[in-house]
Design brief:
The protein is built from 19 helices and 21 strands. It is α/β, with parallel strands linked by helices. It has 2 domains: 364 residues, Aldolase class I (TIM Barrel), CATH 3.20.20.70; 108 residues, CBS-domain (Roll). Helix 9 crosses helix 10, helix 11 crosses helix 13 and helix 14 crosses helix 17.
Length: 524
């Protein structure tokens, strides 16, 4: 017993809890500067729970958020994030009406039911359909055929959508309505997936099920591959993040819009937030590079005054005073991070910003005193970074990790046999010209002086789909929690013990002194 006590005392001398560790280091630290000490555990990784509550009515099953960047999150990414238990923040580098449409696509997305399937008209030529497939990069070639009133006329099968038939009209090649199996939307009831699953089981060889209304207008489409994937997902450990109406969660960022005289455009901001709320937006993010400013505080107070129960994310800050300021203004969740992102140059250009782990510690203590939560925004390159961030934060925001996924906006390009996607900081010149200048305190209409960019434009190597990336990250998070004996994220924050790592220790932590023949799938 005495030996055990002595061993624990020895551990305590080296491996410190957050307060003891960070307060004893005047040097600002980031993820690779620190490692976590293991503890006795009776928890298996698969038994850990990753649920996190960011605000009242905003609960995620995976503590990951995709960044509100124009090369990361639009509706397709937000849908994928929510389906995998996380949250997507749709960027504002687009016209307001387009952002509303993006939110609607997420909130109206019925898992498995394609509510607005791609259709063709009977007068189109097969060549026209081929051109659309090529332009839009569709991975399918079977289409419903409808008239001007959206009434179903038949189905254009993929086996006739070929160049040899390019000059034939769709009406000459379709499978007629009488031969197309459909289902009335009333039959979907409260279990559309189960009904579609039974249909495909009862009708071997049919891979698409069209949904129609009383007037035989097309109302949606099921594919057998989607249904099979969904039924498999029902037994998965991680569940989709949904609101009280069983819709996928979705967030949207807003700009601190100003009038020509420099004052906040209160009416426009409130009108746009109101429209977002009407579309079902679950959380609003007031995103700027410097959140501890009068302008950001004014916007948060404005939105909070008009929408008393709406969760608000605000940032970015790296100080306890910044957290206190935004919480006082009415924010529920505070974004922490200035300059840690791979495509952010704020620290180089402006000479400001705090290495991320120290910033998270300072912010976490202020947030606890205020009763708000924090998100670690930036600097995440691997699952080990996430587990370290979660010892202090309630979730992480990732940009580069998802920028190469097929769900991210932008076209794939091939360079020297490798596939890449565009990835740019919201402080890059191109992004600011497209609309994000206010995020960095500039005006897009200011042509009298040069704007100092605080981000770069880059390429990100194409990566697997979001579900695979999140799956890898979740596996790493759960593994780390198992090592610390933490059954949930609250226990992870209370049990974490830290120690500083030398440069040699950093090298030791990664594969070394070998020739790798197969690299890790953990993004970096």
């Amino acid at each position: 017993m005495a030996t055990s006590v002595a061993a624990s005392a020895l551990d305590a001398e080296f491996y410190k809890p957050a307060d003891g560790f960070f307060r004893s280091h005047a040097t600002a630290l980031t993820f690779d500067d620190v490692t976590l000490a293991t503890l006795y555990s009776d928890i298996l990784p698969r038994e850990t729970q990753l649920d996190t509550r960011l605000a009242e009515g905003l609960e995620l099953h995976v503590p990951m958020v995709s960044a509100d960047m124009d090369t990361v999150t639009e509706s397709r990414m937000a849908i994928a994030m929510a389906q995998n238990g996380g949250l997507g923040l749709i960027h504002y580098n687009m016209p307001e009406k387009d952002q509303l449409s993006e939110v609607s696509r997420v909130k109206n997305h019925v898992h498995g039911l394609i509510q607005e399937p791609i259709k063709v008209s009977p007068d189109q030529f097969i060549g026209d359909v081929l051109a659309v497939i090529e332009k839009k990069k569709f991975a399918f070639s079977t289409f419903p055929v409808v008239d001007a009133d959206n009434r179903l006329l038949g189905l254009l099968p993929g086996h006739v959508v070929k160049p040899r038939y390019a000059k034939r009209k769709v009406i000459e090649s379709l499978q007629p309505r009488s031969e197309v199996r459909t289902i009335h939307e009333r039959e979907l009831a409260n279990d559309p997936i189960g009904r579609a699953d039974r249909f495909f089981t009862e009708n071997p060889g049919i891979h698409k099920l069209l949904v129609v209304d009383d007037a035989d207008r097309l109302r949606g489409l099921f594919t057998m591959s989607d249904i099979e994937r969904i039924t498999a997902e029902r037994s998965a450990q991680v569940k989709p993040a949904r609101d009280g109406k069983f819709r996928l969660l979705c967030g949207a960022a807003i700009a601190t819009t100003r009038k020509a005289d420099g004052t906040l455009d209160d009416q426009r901001i409130i009108a746009h937030v109101g429209a977002l709320v009407e579309r079902g937006t679950d959380v609003i993010a007031v995103s700027t590079a410097h959140g501890h400013t009068k302008g950001v505080g004014d916007v948060v107070r404005l939105v909070r005054g008009a929408f008393t129960t709406l969760p608000i994310i605000a940032g970015n800050v790296t100080s306890g005073a910044g957290v206190d300021f935004l919480a006082e203004a009415g924010a529920n969740v505070i974004k922490i991070g200035q300059g840690p992102g791979s495509i952010c140059t704020t620290r180089v250009v402006a000479g400001v910003g705090i290495p991320q782990l120290t910033a998270l510690y300072v912010a976490s203590r202020a947030a606890a005193a205020r009763g708000v939560t924090i998100l670690a925004d930036g600097g995440i390159t691997k699952s080990g970074d996430i587990i370290k961030a979660l010892t202090l934060a309630h979730g992480v925001i990732c940009g580069g990790m998802f920028a190469g996924c097929p769900e991210a906006p932008g076209q794939i390009m091939e360079i020297n046999g490798k596939l890449f996607k565009q990835y740019r900081g919201m402080g890059s010149l191109a992004a600011m010209k497209a609309g994000s200048a206010a995020r960095y305190g500039h005006s897009t209409s200011d042509t009298t002086r040069k704007v100092a960019a605080e981000g770069i434009e880059a390429l990100k190597e194409a990566s697997p789909p979001v579900d695979q990336v999140i799956g890898q990250m979740v596996g790493g998070i759960q593994s780390g929690m198992g090592y610390l004996g933490a059954a949930n994220l609250e226990q992870l924050r209370s049990r974490a013990r830290y120690i500083r790592v030398s440069s040699a220790g950093m090298k030791e932590a990664a594969p070394h002194d070998v020739v790798e023949i197969k690299t890790s799938t953990n993004p970096s």
